Amino acid sequence: MKLGSPVHLRGFATWSGTFLLMGVICLPGIWVMISAIRPTREILARPPIWWPEDPSWANFARIFGLGDTLVGIPVHTYFWNSLVVSLTSTIVALVIGMAGGYAFARYRFRFKNAWFLGLMLFRAVPGIALSLPLFILWSWFGLIDTPLGLILVYVALNVPFTIWLTDGFFRLVPPSLSEAAQMDGCTPWQAFWKIEFPLARPGIAAAGIFAFLTSWNEFALASHLTRSTDSKTLPVGLMDFTAQFTIDWAGMCAMAVIIIVPTLILTFFVQKHLISGLTLGAMKG
Amino acid sequence: MAAITLEQVVKRFGRDEVIHGIDLRIAHDEFVVLVGPSGCGKSTTLRMIAGLEDLSDGTIRIGDQVVNDLPPRKRNLAMVFQNYALYPHMNVRQNLGFGLTIAGEPKEVVAERVQDTAALLGLSDLLDRLPAELSGGERQRVAMGRALVRRPEAFLFDEPLSNLDAKLRVQMRGEIKRLHTAVRTTIVYVTHDQVEAMTLADRIVVMQDGRIEQIGQPMTLFDHPVNTFVAGFIGTPPMNLIPARIAGDEIAFNDGQQIPLPDRFTALVTEGQSVIFGLRPDHLCPDKKQRETGTSLVEIPLKVHMIEPHGAEMLLHARLAGQPVLGKMYAPRPVAPGDQLTFQLALDKIHLFDAASGRSVTAR
Amino acid sequence: MSPSTDQENLPAVTRLFRRHHSALTPLLLLSPALLILLFVIALPMAFSLYASFTPYRMTRPDSIETFIGLRNYIRLIGNDDFWAAFLRTLLFLAIALNLELILGLGIALLIDRVTLGQRLLRTIMMFPMMFSPILVGFQFKFIFNDNIGVVNNALQFLGLADQAIPWLVDGTLAMGAILFAEIWMSTSVFAIVLLAGLFAMPRDPLEAAKVDGCTPWQSFRHVTLPFLLPFAYIAMTIRSLDVARAYDIVAIMTDGGPAGRTELLWTLIARVGFDNARMGEANAMAFMASLLSILFTWFLFTRLLAARRTMGGVE
Q1: Rounded to two decimals, what is the model's pTM?
Q2: What ipTM does this complex have?
Q3: What's the gap in Å between the CA of B2 and the closest CA on chain C?
């Protein structure tokens, strides 16, 4: 085939388009990562220094309070808070959402579509709008600035979407499997755990990752419902760096890496199920 | 092994009543087939026996025990599902042994019973495969093995062959029949395929719209259908059903053609009664080969408009009194559409149904 | 065993439950979800509605008991800042969602055509979805910084600009930067869902279209696009559930500045409610913002159901 023929041109266009796309997606993050391992001096340098001349983990050590230069931000506490809040709320949301998803997948009841829509609409309330009344109510209930207060909120945020995802996956498991297990001598409860749960596990894992990501990344509510090291999470902690008069770019970059890396690792494992989980609702009614 | 009894069983989904009080007694060791068009309630009936659906009213007994409120696991029945319902994440061995394991049988007993069942069904080489790695027929056999291995009171089959291709279906039909002879157990079998029903059943239960139309041995249903529905449903090709009227000693069709009214009907019909005349294609033949000896034949000329060669025989589509009728030619010879042929109609084989009720005039 | 033992030994309640259990079970299964949603979302929303009828200020706790009717709402109608933020939010969403849909479709078609390393591309494409919005905001605050940002550095290095461009200092440019961040973060949802749609698409209709003499554009327009429609609605619905995530981005990038030029409804709510402590007024705004979001999701969801119905029994 001659060079410059239409087929060749199309291939070239596809490749350059893909290349550009990947650049736009990856470069900002890569730049943040590069900046996380270089000293502030290099970040501020003029003319700019493109490739780190003096790479080190110093920024990470610094924000974790290791080494000699102390930063007044207790990142390890934030990390711990984030982990506790995210994991707990994910597990609780998963259990509650799975029960709901199962109800939608397996039972016929009146106004089913309306129920489903109603549950989803709870999720549509903007976090910031919800944070106003929650701030007042949680103060009254003594839940403000506690991990429990945040966990409750995140469970509520995650339940609707967990229902959406698990509903789709449970529907992929034919009801006759549970019936067969019951004919084989199982109680409905046994049939669920021995047959239906293992088969829907990829979807449940995907729902769990989504819930974890939402909790781990949430800012609007957390920033108003937490105020001290008792409950502040990483995204809120990130703002600590900008509250000061000068911005600690290197420290922020290091903290950004700390926030993003766990989610990237988690996502990598379930990305296939994540996609199918999202789209299952499209074709199955 | 146990008998299964249904008394006045009713099923409602919300306001919809789908089963209208059926009575059925299935004897110990009997092979009963529930047959009917889709939506007739046969599967629902089976699922109520299994305990997968609640009864709205009535009673179901297994042996002497009322099982209305017993969950499926306590009924000691086994079921083969239409889609087989094999557990996809377990291999054949685990699928077969699942019920026994749940029941808490010791490992050695499970292994032994699984081995025996697999041997009986020719599955011994497949024990370590996953269901996804099996062919349709193999899956079917695993599903049956899963039922067999537990030695239940009775087997329930829910359209087990409908997902197989025609050839395999015939083969599996034979295996199920062989199995029933071998293990002698109560079987309730649901199908929409009347050929399956005819070939397998000790007794057939024909259902329509949540009611039982007729219960009987296959040949009884074939020879003595109690109404037009059973007449049209049992037998391929279906019975010809043509509206007519009783006029003196004759059965008069709407176009004026008449055939003599056989003596056995004279006491059962009234002058001028509207009836449905029924005759199987087997008894409407253009060749002089009506084999039945001592059969009184009537000749009627019919114009053939379509021909279906089936090899050994030939189906002829014609019209009688404006209605499509099927005839059968046992010794095929060249016929062309449009040909006028003289058909022999076997009077002994005529069925008459009351036009208003659809019931056979001979039925009590 | 006598014929009826089993039935009569059961307590009446158990029997009643058995009879109706298929109706009660789904309710039972859904009740934890309902309880938590009512407690954490519905109750606060009801309280928010109530608070919007009071002049509540956190500095004067007893003001929560004063009822002032619709005065907060009437004040909002005459409030130019509110209307500016409101309209800016609508415009922001209209631009962002449309661009995300179009870009997402383009990306899906592009990736669908790539044969080598497609899985890897898909995984990379999902990365922005994993980013916390606050991180996205920070990332672009960092690279759009006028002094040390890599964008300005690169432009000056390449000689495309002779002085620093004030990306986050100029009102219009700041809005553009925020839009860019928002689109960077959310386009992948569309791309991924639409790509899954392309994968799920049966080949037969496309081949039939080819046989019927359709040009590539015609078969795309009349076969591919209608098939993708429910997928587009799914992506839209998922997106609509968290459109307010843009709050995080704005909060860290500009916090509504300069001079309120990037103020969105959500940042305004936070400012009035938390910074100025005028909770009554803020709750009025918050309640309207919530209502708007709910209506938007509701609309998309019904369209999703309708699209699914017209697709018929495609499974």
Answers
A1: 0.84
A2: 0.86
A3: 14
